[in-house]
Amino acid sequence: MTGPGRPAVVDRHRAVDEQQANKDLARYWFEEGWTRGNLDVADSIFAPDFVLSGRTVGPEGPRRSVRNRRTAFAGLEVSIGLQVAEGPWVATWFTTRATHVAEFAGVPPTGRLVVSEGIQLWRVEDGLVVEDRNVFDRWAVVSQLRGSG
Which of the 8 DSSP states describes residue 75? Predict the structure, then answer.
């Protein structure tokens, strides 16, 4: 038994439900924020003291990232390949596809279709994302823009 009079199976179900909720939260941000450009949802997803790559940026940090990317790349679509959750953490492997229409990383618009992949690792507390650690192959994007990838 775990807790006062509760069988361990109840706690396992609660953990599974929480992990699924964390995965759903990440999927919601990719669909609403990245693909649809609905940045208003950031306040309901990211904590006021949200940390991105070691810096406290709050919900404005993710909004700025999406705004910048959607400005440089038209028709941005994000697809989720895999999600894994463990405790408060959720990892999402994703692929983006978009057309380069404005300067990005010092490269003027090329009109090229760019495909890239990344992994986002979020820590969620009380239904809000408090931390993001991510890996995004920026060099692969720049290589495609320059016609060498």
Answer: E
| pTM across the whole model | 0.85
Give me the torsion for CA of 105, 109, 110, 113, rounded to 10°.
80
The predicted-structure confidence for 46-55, as pLDDT tens digits, reads as follows 999 999 989 9
8 Å CB contact between 19 and 85: yes
Pick the CATH number of 8-145 from 3.20.20.140, 1.10.3720.10, 3.10.450.50, 3.20.20.70: 3.10.450.50
Bridge-partner residues for 128, per DSSP?
A: 125
Tell me how far apart the 2 most distant CA atoms of the chain are, in Å.
64
Write out the two tokens for 86.
């463990």
Question: Judging by beta carbons within 10 Å of its beta carbon (0-12, 13-18, 19+), is residue 40 exposed, middle or buried?
Answer: exposed
CA-to-CA separations, 16 to 26, 44, 84, in angstroms, rounded: 16, 22, 11
Tokens of 110: 């090329």
Per-residue pLDDT tens digits for 19-71 = 999 999 999 999 999 999 999 999 999 999 999 989 999 999 999 999 999 99
